[in-house]
Task: structure prediction
Amino acid sequence: MRIIVCLKRVGYLYDPTAVDLSTGDIDPEKMAFMLNPYDEVAVEEAIRIKECAGGGEIILLSAGPVEVEETLRYAWAMGGRQIDRVIRIDDDSFDRWKTARLLAQTIERLKFDLILCGKKAIDTNAGQVGTFIAELLDLPQVSGIVNLDFPAQGKAIAERYMGKGDREEVECQLPALFTAELGLNEARYPAVTNRLQAEKLEIEVLDPASSNFLGSDGEAASHFVKYSPPRPKTRKIFTPDSNLSVMERMSQMVSGGAAKKEGGTVWEGSAEEAAGHILHFLRQNKILEDAE
Amino acid sequence: MAYTREIYWNIGHGAAVLVPLYLLTFTAVALLALGFWRRIKVYRQGRVLGRTDGLADRALVALKQVLSQKKVLRVPGAGTAHGLFFWSFFLLFAGTCLIVVQADFSDPLFGIRFLKGHFYLLFSLVLDLAGLGALFMLGGLFVRRYLLRPQGLVTKGDHALMHALLFTILLTGFMIEGTRMAATELGMELAVWSPVGLLVAKMFAPFGVEGLHNVHRCLWWFHLLISLGFIALVPFTLFRHIFTTSANYLFADRGPRGALVPLSFEEGTAQHYGASKVSDLTWKDLLDADACTECKRCQDRCPAHLTDKPLSPMKLVNELQEAAFNAPAESLVDKVGEDALWSCTTCRACTESCPAAVEHLPKIVEMRRHAVLSESRFPQEYKQLFKDMETFGDSVGKGSSFREEWASRLKIKRTGQDEPVDFLFWAGCQGALYDERSRNTLVATARVLEKAGLNFGILGREERCCGDLARRMGNEYLFQRLARQNIETLQRHGIKRIVTNCPHCFTALRDHYPQFGATFEVMHSVELVERLIGEGKLAVQAKIDATFTYHDPCYLGRYNELYPEPRKILDHILRTGLKEMERSKGNSFCCGAGGGNIWRGGSVGQRIEEVRVEEAVQTGADGIVTSCPFCEIMIDSGVKQKGMEYTFRVADLMELVDQAT
Result:
């Protein structure tokens, strides 16, 4: 079985270090980069499938600038000698459609049985590239899988979360594309012996500018504009008590719940006194039947 | 009459005696040498390690430590008994040597006799008392092992043999003396100087002259045989500790405490890292394993063992010995057990208390190195930790921008942005990222430094985790990445002096970073503040009224011996004195955070920090003060678990200094 794993090097945007909050510009020098956790799961799954089957081929694929190679080496180190090829498509754009087309065209040239990707990247949270690839290659695809089995030659069964503990089983023919959800497996920590070997690894680099790639509609369909940090938390919308008068409800909504209810009474005193008052109120308003 | 005796009385001094005597002696010594040679071959399975530098000085130090029995005596009871036994036996051995020197060398060759006169009187008395002392102490040790049976003390057949042999040697020694004195010295003034012998002589008095001579001769040869037997048996029984423990002192690590050997990742061709089997340990590790006398002092002080975790430092060392001698191909991590391996908090209480100078920690770290670096085998909780440390350079995965948050409302210089500073105040991840409490400690320390008029600054976002944690957990690769990054940053800013609050960062910066080319002068805040108070640069405005007890952090105390400094500071700032816990200073009980355990939660046994908090509360103090952000967090957690957060105050020493100045 030949498995192709597509992965992405993501920047950790949740740390404001790298972002200039006034302009929204990102300084890559200050950013922390990592292998996309969803893709890490996909890599792990590929390794496990090969280990289980006792054979097969794994190809790692990623599109991006030369910095991506650091991430590809980390991913290789997870599998070590079990990873057969590591390919980087040299591309600097941020566009999902272009990335998907580059990956799909590369994959098309390689014979394959299975494509594994992460469900989404944690920097864009878009989750589109996997689906685009499947469409471009006219493949069946199941997204967000949490289990993958191969009951027979050329067939696969995947499970997906349906919420509330339910799972959906989807059967499909191979070749197919699956995008991994985080519960699919627990990705291994690469052995340092592998990490060191990975540093010397030969990575194949494909240049899209050479013929055969993309053609005339190879321009990016989108480009990065700016990053905005999350807006401050919205205040909870206060829902006033419908037993109050309109005036009181209006004033409460306007003040966000801070206005004093005028129809109310506040008693101060000991617990016994307060209990007595409450009991009296309840009886007076016929909420409680009188004892006598 | 002359104060002397005829050596070899009743035995004879001719060839008929000397030839078998010396033959037997040589045989015994040969067996001893052979026995140890076999053991040395096992040690040599291990890797090379340089421990022969300054051999003369080492020998002197070792001699002093062995003869003074200093570490042994630390624990009264068994320790005192052993110490007295050792000196008694040593005196008896020395006395016997003197006799050999005179009887077989100085007298026949040069006609010199020194066992006479007042010296002989002293000689007799000292040896008699030594023999008596030895008998009593042996008896005491016997009672402890076989009648009192302290929990956790392992007794084997070896011990019975040793007790029996020593007892017989001592007893027959007195009997020989007694029979001789009964035949030659009764009624003389000389006899009083051998009081025990005199007592025994009186018991033998009823024997006739011939009876006495026969009994004496038989006993003499019997005593010779079993004494030589003892010598021959030394390497084959736990008696070997006479040599192995002494050798251990000789080859002890003279570097900084808890120092670890860096691994080289340069060629990247090593098949594996760390200790996978016995031959990956050093010869010193294997000697250590053999020198262990199973006294269980380490076990009795190990915080993991005392809270029912599956780790016993003694058992671990014994398992290594077993592997070295019986199963050298076995996987060490499997033999010792992963649970035991990861329970260690690296507190060093084991090494500190070991009277045989065993160094437990490097073995544990080497095994962890193998587990992490070669097999990626470690508790699940650590995976995210390692990844965060690599990606973000901090142990929580929050990112470097949060490192400056604690200083956001203070005016503190940043290196690289403002003019050069005298000191770099190294914040450390723990304080900068975790807890509000830890951040407050950093603020307090900054204020104290400011009050003292120091010109200091912080690295801020450029700081990365010091990596000590990664190193102790065996992830040497990650540690070196972080260390090199930090050293490069520090050198780029031209930093020369560093002060920090965190004992882990302190140990890493001072003791470990020099392995990678760092040459900074590093101080912990307690050192600096104590000095500042002494120089009058920090004036105490209002002494604090509450009573406190002080918790010695492992990495400040046992690793760096900074016991007096915090106490001197507390002396200045507390109105009433300090209430010390029983387990303080070198004997301090770990808070449980080290070695990665702060991330483990840990569901086995009791919580280490709760045990420590209980101990602290029992002193009757109003609160506890410490000088480590990890200890502070653990103790705080322990106090909250016990519902005492409003009644028992937890403070960092710098907090109190800030309050008082």
User: Anything to note?
Assistant: The first strand of chain A starts at residue 2 and ends at 6. Chain A touches chain B at residues 12, 14-17, 30, 32-34, 186, 188-193, 195-197, 199-200 (CB under 8 Å).
